[in-house]
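Appendix B. Raw example, untouched.
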Amino acid sequence: MQKHRRILIVARGQEGMDRTTRVLEGDGHIVTGTLNDAVAIDMAGSSNFDALVLGRSLPLADRGYVAREVSDRQPSIIVVTEQSPQSVLIQLRQAYKERQSELSE
């Protein structure tokens, strides 16, 4: 049985974030989203997430900043950048599989 994970999404556009949220929730994940970088970083510091999804609407510099800050607060978090709402599931599954392999070694 697949473990349903807690996922934090940060994006610039509500519509895109909502699409990605629907895809992830449809797969059974628990999703929290924000349009604000600082809020995402604060949430990562106060709650435990399995993954961070950076919306493709975020400028590259902002993606890097948010990823670094969130990873500092939660070193085990998996970080992916959304290419499309559906691709996020594939990216996350691959990242979880790789993480599991690393832990098994």
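End of appendix B.
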